[in-house]
C-alpha cells in the first residue's frame, strides 16, 4: 500500500522569493522607507515655502503646495520601486548568492513576479508614508475626486519602475553601472516629468519634449486622481503607461528566460 506524499504547492517557490524581497527592505526600513519620506518632506517644505505665492497652477485653481504633494508621492513611489528590484539583483550577483535563486525550479514568470511585486510593495509603502506626512500641508487632498485613477497609476508606475530596476540589475555587473543607470536615466526622467511644475508653464518646445517622457504620463495621470485636472488626457496617460508596462515586462521576461548575464 503506497502512501501519498504531500501535494505539490507550485506557488510556494515564488512566494518564498517574494517574502525574501519584502523582508530584505523591511529589516532596514529606517533607510529604505523613513529616509525617502524625510527627503520628500524636505522638498515640500522648501519648494512650497519659496514658490507658493509665485507659481500659479491650472490657471490658479490649485495651490502650489497641493499641486506638489501628489508629484512628490509619485516620485517617491517610482524611485523606491526601482531601487528595490535593482539593488536586490545586483547585490545577489556581486555576492554570488544569486545561484540560490536560479537553482530552484522557478520559471521566469515566477522570478519576475517576486521581484516586481516586492518593488511595488516598497514603492507603495514609501508613497503612503510621504502622503501621510505631507497631507497636513494640504488636507483638502483627502477628498480625491477620482481615487481609482490615482490607484491605477500608482500600481502601474511602481510596476514599471520595478521592471526597469529588474532590467537594470540584469544588465549591470557592478554598482557603478547601476548608479549610472539611475543617475543618468531614472533621476533626470523623474525630475523632468512635471513633479515640481505644470508643463504648461514651460516654453512650447519644452512642452513638446516633455510629451516624449513616459514618466510625465505616470505623474500627470496620478495627479488627475487628486484634482480632476491634468496637462494631458488621463486616457492618453493610461494608454501610454499601460503600453510601457507591457513592453518592459516582455523585455524583462525574455531576458530572464535566456538567462542573459545571470546563467551565462
Keywords:
10 helices, mainly alpha
Shape: elongated
Topology pattern, helix = H, strand = E: HHHHHHHHHH
Main sheet specs: none
Count of the domains: 1
Q: What is the helical fraction, as a range of percent? A: over 70%
N- and C-termini, Cα separation: 46 Å
Mean pLDDT comes to: 91
Q: Helix/strand/pairing class, anyone?
A: mainly alpha
Strand content of the residues, in percent? under 5%
Residue ranges: pLDDT <50 for 5 or more in a row? none
Number of helices: 10
| Count of DSSP strands | 0
Mind telling me the C-alpha Rg?
20 Å
List the helices and strands and how they pair.
Blueprint: H1 12-26, H2 29-51, H3 64-95, H4 99-102, H5 108-134, H6 147-171, H7 175-191, H8 204-210, H9 214-227, H10 234-258
Helix pairs in contact: 1-5, 2-3, 2-5, 3-5, 3-6, 3-7, 3-9, 5-6, 5-10, 6-9, 6-10, 9-10
Fold and architecture overview:
- It is a single chain.
- The protein is mainly α.
- It has one domain (29-258).
- 72% of the residues lie in helices and 0% in strands.
- It has ten helices and no strands.
- The chain has helices at 12-26, 29-51, 64-95, 99-102, 108-134, 147-171, 175-191, 204-210, 214-227, 234-258.
- α1 (12-26) runs parallel beside α5 (108-134), α2 (29-51) packs across α5 and α3 packs across α9.
- The longest helix has 32 residues, at 64-95.
- The radius of gyration is 20 Å and the shape is elongated.
- The termini are far apart.
- The relative contact order is 0.14.
Amino acid at each position: 500500500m503506497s502512501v501519498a506524499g504531500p501535494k505539490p504547492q507550485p506557488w510556494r517557490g515564488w512566494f518564498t522569493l517574494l517574502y525574501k524581497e519584502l523582508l530584505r527592505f523591511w529589516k532596514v526600513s529606517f533607510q529604505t522607507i523613513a529616509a525617502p519620506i524625510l527627503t520628500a518632506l524636505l522638498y515640500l517644505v522648501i519648494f512650497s515655502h519659496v514658490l507658493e505665492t509665485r507659481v500659479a497652477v491650472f490657471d490658479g485653481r490649485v495651490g502650489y503646495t497641493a499641486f506638489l504633494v501628489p508629484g512628490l508621492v509619485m516620485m517617491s513611489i517610482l524611485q523606491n520601486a526601482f531601487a528595490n528590484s535593482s539593488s536586490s539583483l545586483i547585490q545577489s550577483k556581486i555576492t554570488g548568492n544569486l545561484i540560490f535563486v536560479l537553482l530552484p525550479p522557478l520559471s521566469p514568470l515566477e522570478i519576475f513576479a517576486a521581484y516586481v511585486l516586492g518593488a511595488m510593495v516598497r514603492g507603495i509603502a514609501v508613497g503612503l508614508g510621504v502622503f501621510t506626512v505631507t497631507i497636513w500641508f494640504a488636507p483638502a487632498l483627502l477628498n480625491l475626486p477620482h481615487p481609482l485613477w490615482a490607484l491605477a497609476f500608482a500600481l502601474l508606475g511602481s510596476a514599471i519602475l520595478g521592471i526597469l530596476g529588474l532590467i537594470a540589475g540584469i544588465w549591470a555587473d557592478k554598482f557603478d553601472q547601476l548608479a549610472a543607470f539611475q543617475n543618468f536615466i531614472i533621476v533626470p526622467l523623474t525630475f523632468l516629468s512635471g513633479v515640481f511644475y505644470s508643463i504648461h508653464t514651460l516654453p512650447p518646445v519644452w512642452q513638446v519634449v516633455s510629451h516624449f517622457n513616459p514618466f510625465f504620463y505616470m505623474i500627470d495621470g496620478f495627479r488627475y486622481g487628486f484634482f480632476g485636472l491634468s496637462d494631458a488626457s488621463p486616457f492618453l496617460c493610461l494608454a501610454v503607461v499601460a503600453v510601457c508596462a507591457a513592453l518592459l515586462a516582455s523585455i524583462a521576461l525574455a531576458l530572464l528566460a535566456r538567462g542573459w548575464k545571470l546563467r551565462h
